[in-house]
Every structure is written in structure tokens, then in C-alpha cells.
Amino acid sequence: MSMLCAISGTVPEHPTVSKKSGHIFERSLITKYVSETGKCPITGAELSEDDLLPLATNKTIKPRSSAATSIPGLLGLFHDEWDALMLEHHTLRQNLHTVRQELSHALYQHDAACRVIARLLRERDEARAALTTLREDMRAEMEAAAEARKRAGAEEDGEGSGGPAKRSKQEVLGQDVIAVLDQTNAALSSGRRKRGVPEGTATAEQLGGYSLTGSFPLHKTTQPGITALALHPTQPSLLASCGADATVQLFDLAAQRQLPALTGHAKRVTAAVWGESSLLLTASNDKTVRFWRHAEADGAEEGGFGSWKCAAVGEEHGGEVRGLALHPSRKYAVSVSDDASWAWWDLANAACLKQCSGAAAGYTCTGFHPDGLLLITGTADAKAQIWEMRQQKAVTGFEAGGGQALTGVSFSENGYHVAAVAADGVSVWDLRKMKCIKELRPYDDPSCRAVAFDHSSQFLAVGGSDLRVYAPKQDWALVKAFPDVPKKGVLSLAWGPQAGSILVGGGDHNLRVFGLAGSGAEMQE
After folding, report:
1. In this structure, are strands 490-495 and 226-231 parallel, antiparallel, or unpaired?
2. Residue 62 has what pLDDT?
3. Is the pTM of the predicted complex or chain greater than 0.85?
């Protein structure tokens, strides 16, 4: 009969018996328990160390098991241990494979859930954008309707008082306007496909030899800055320079002389375009668009350099007018404003035919496609919208500028590409694939402000801390950088005929002309 400890259940090495209960304990265990509790661990009765009696036992060596007394027995033990180890290893590998499958399935479910969440978020954002656009369109239509009623009353009052009458804006452009758009598009698109590089256009080697050939002070030194330049399309020696001093300075490039300045705007003039029949259209931060006509337009040649007067003032916008775009027919123009609207102007009648809103942020720049059916508008939140002008609907768009406001856009003459400039650089987009094909980051600091393709689409000029010209057909290689610009950098630029010169408006009051040395321009202070 073996004795077992009532606490541990093992054979005690120092057995001790309780006089009260008769149970046998290991001495160390019962002594510790009694010192802590003062009770019997089995019966719970009061117990002290005096109630414990040690038992005398015969200490003998425990016999070794028969299996470990011989080499074959040891080999058998080792074999059994090996089998158990291999079985455990196999079980672990099975468990590992199962866990891997479960992990793979969980990761697949997580990826699918993320894709569903992303799709739902995208659909939510698109729905919000559509709702915002719908609200803006409804607001614009309601405002347009109210403005139309107001103008109709003003028109009746004007007719009664002998003043000039204004045409009310239309819900959509009339069929006569659509016909002009279609005719212009048909004529220009068919001719453009056959047109090569015009003879006499400057080459990259010639442009590499350009230097500063003329500098002309056109604006006030107290309010420096030339914000826009516009060359007359049929009289390329006639230049309109828009200044931060609220004036438009006409300049005769051939004779290198200033013509009378056009005054009337109250704030910075931001853009200018030349219409037909000696018409100049200008935009300003004073929220107006002004129509300037030649004082002797009835008997003078188009583009004559005589005196000019303001024929009409457009006050359709509720915010600063930031840009103008002339339709290739030269009969219509579009103005954009930071009130997030653009207006379609009939130049012959100085009338706004339609006004649209379609952006969450204000418009900052605009431009017409060479064929005249597409209009691009840039916004203060780095988004560009492309409008189909027959329906006046935004059909596509893209985001450029790294979140910074777009300050200029320019179409290539082939109509395939458009360049958009923001402070951090220029991005060039392929309109056929709506894909960005090139990003130019010419400066370390965010100083880009102007961009323009030349008429042959062989060169792209970028204005910022300096003037740089790139060759798109030569893997966008840098043709030349022109450092002769003011410290405030380049604000505007324009190409001369056949890329024979580059006109630059800087942050100071001077117009700078770059071309081949000895081209006839003299430096003026």
C-alpha cells in the first residue's frame, strides 16, 4: 500500500500525518499551508504544527523501468519518441497550411471589401458632384431668368428714352450661332489636316540664337505688371498690352512707338482679344468686359492704328473677369470669371447671348480649340473642363496643377494637345486619350505663370522665373532659356508670326521682345 500526499497526490519524501484527521501530507506543503491559514486543507478544521506527526519511511532507490535497462529498450524508446515527434511535426504542418488558407481567404475578402468601399465612395462623390452641378445650373438659370426679366424692363426703358438696347440671354445658343460654329469647324478642320509647317517658320537652331532685341516701357512704374498680350491677327505689328495699372496700351511694333492708351477699367486688366472689324475686347478685375472700336471704323482699314473708344461695357459677371477666348470665326468670344461662370458674347452687337456655371471654384483662364467646337476652362482648384459649344455642356475634363490654380491654357495647332500651367509647372494632355503625356517642372520654386504653343506647334514657351522654350517633337527638349527677364518673372507671353519673335510681359512695366540680333528693335528705358 503506497502513501500519497493529500495535497499533491504524489508519494511524499517527508511524510507527515495529522493527529486530528489522519491524512498524510508532504511536510513542506502542509507546514506552509498551516502557517498561512491555520486550518486543515482537507477538512477545514483548526490545525497547528503541533498536530502534525512525522512518519518514518525506508528511503530506497527507485527502480529503473525495464525498458531503459538495455540498449534495445533504449532504441525502442527513441523510436517511439521519433514517431511521436514526426506525428507532431506533420500535425503542425497541416495546421500551418490550414491557417495560410484561412489567411489568404481573409485577405481576399478584405481586398474585395476595400474595392467595394472605394467604388461606393467614388459613386457617392460623383453623385455629390452631379448634385452640385445641378444646383449651380439651376441657380444660374434662375439668375439668368431674373436678369433677363430685369434687362427686358431695362430694354423697354432704354428704347423709350433713346438709349442703347440690350439683347436678353438665351437658354441655348441660336441656330444662327450653331451654323457659324459648324461652318468654321468644317473649314478649319479640313484645312488643318492638310497643312504642314508654314514656310519661313523659325527652326530650333534659329530660335537657339534668339536674344533680347527690345525693351519698351508701356505702363506705369507705380503699378507694374503686364498681365496679358494680344497681337492683332491681320495686323501683327499692332499689339495690345494689358497692365496692372488698369490701362490697355496699344503699341506699334514695326514703328516701335506707343499709341494712345485705352482707359476706362477701374482695376487690373486681365485679358484682351481682337475681334473682326477693328474691335478689341478687354476684361478686368472690375467685373466688366469692354468693347473698344476704332473711332473711324466705318471708313478705316481693319486694324488701323488711329484713335479708339469704348463702344459698350458688359457687366454680366458678379466677380472678377479673369480670362477671354476668341472663337476662330472672330465673331464670338467667351469670358470667364471667378464667380464660377462663363459668358458667350456676340461681338458685333456687344451682347451676352448665354451665361453658364459649371464649376465648384472660380474660373481663372480659358481658350478655344483651333476648330472652334471645344472650349477649355481652368479653375482655381486646378481642374480643367472641356465644353462642347453646340450644346454648351461640359463633356470631359482633367485635374492638373497639383491643387494650385490654373493660370493659363494653350491648344496646339493640330488640336491634339493642350497645355495647362499652374505655379508648380506645366502639364500637357492628349485630348484623344485624355491622358497626361508630359509634365514640365522647369523651376525649383512655384513660379510658372504663362504657357503658349506657337502657330506651327513646333515650340512651347513657358514663362516663370525666366522664359524657356521646349520642342515637343524633339522629346520635349529644352531649346533655350532666356534669363533677361525682371526679378518678378514673366506674367504673360505671345509668339510673333512664324515664331520669328517672342513677346514677353514681365512683372515690371516693360515689354520685352526676343528675336534674332539685328532684327530692328532698339532698347528703350
Report:
1. unpaired
2. 59
3. no
Torsion of CA 409, 207, 240, 232, to 10 degrees: -90
The C-alpha cell of 419 is what?
Answer: 497645355
User: pLDDT for 59-98, tens place per residue?
Assistant: 665 555 566 678 888 888 888 888 888 888 988 999 999 9
Cell of 444: 525649383
Distance of CA 383 to the CA centre of its chain: 5
Type of residue found at 388: E
Q: Read out DSSP for 146-186?
A: HHHHHHHHHHHHHHHHT----PPPPSS--HHHHHHHHHHHH
Residues whose CB falls within 8 Å of the CB of residue 486, separated by 6 or more in sequence, listed in order: 506, 507, 508, 510
Q: How far apart, in Å, are the Cα atoms of 340 and each of 139, 356, 376, 377, 380?
A: 12, 9, 14, 10, 9
- Can you give the pLDDT at residue 60? 63
pLDDT tens digit string along 174-190? Answer: 888 888 888 888 888 77
Taking alpha carbons only, the member of 377, 365, 349 closest to residue 170 is: 349
Q: How far apart are CA 253 and CA 378, in angstroms?
A: 31
Left if phi > 0, otherwise alpha if psi is -120 to 50, otherwise beta: which for 148?
Answer: alpha
